[in-house]
Amino acid sequence: MDEQSLHSEQLSLTFAALADPTRRAILARLARGQASVSELAAPFDMTQPAITKHLKVLERAGLISRSRDAQWRPCRLEAAPLREASGWIGQYRRLWEERLDRLDDYLAEVQTKENEHGKR
């Protein structure tokens, strides 16, 4: 698989993981620091296996990592996939900002012409 395909697959995994509000909430919690599975599960009305499934999706997407410290298995946020997704979105944001700037210029030009036409 070439680098472009890997990048595309990573973006797909990232966006698929971010599509779920529970996973986004888990990431928001991990942005404040590492946490155990039970700490991550506490705010949700879900079974432990359901939370574990969400964590596996996040882990597969590279958005979190889990380690083992004796009996504690802390989860931590991995920011690299989020930076990549932000960069991808940023390209389109710039494109649309440029298009909207051109539209704004055009509308200002039309309005100026209408104002000049109305004064005659």
Describe this structure in words.
With 120 residues, the chain is mainly alpha-helical. The protein has a single domain, classed as Winged helix-like DNA-binding domain superfamily/Winged helix DNA-binding domain (Arc Repressor Mutant, subunit A, Orthogonal Bundle), CATH 1.10.10. The protein has 5 helices and 2 strands; from the N terminus they run ααααββα. The chain has helices spanning 3-18, 21-30, 37-41, 48-60, 80-119, and strands at 64-66, 75-77. It has a two-stranded antiparallel sheet with strand order 1-2. β1 (64-66) and β2 form a beta hairpin. α1 packs across α5 (80-119). The protein is elongated and about 85 Å long. The relative contact order is 0.12.
What is the overall silhouette? elongated
Strand tally is 2
Q: Which quaternary structure do these chains form?
A: single chain
Rg, Cα atoms, Å: 23 Å
How much helix, percentage-wise, in residues?
Answer: over 70%
CATH topology: Arc Repressor Mutant, subunit A
The residue ranges in which pLDDT falls below 50 over 5 or more consecutive positions are none
**CATH level-1 class:** Mainly Alpha
| Major β-sheet annotation | 2 strands, antiparallel
Order of helices and strands: HHHHEEH
Domain HTH arsR-type: 3-97
Protein name: Transcriptional regulator
Pfam families: HTH_20 (PF12840)
GO molecular function, one term: DNA-binding transcription factor activity
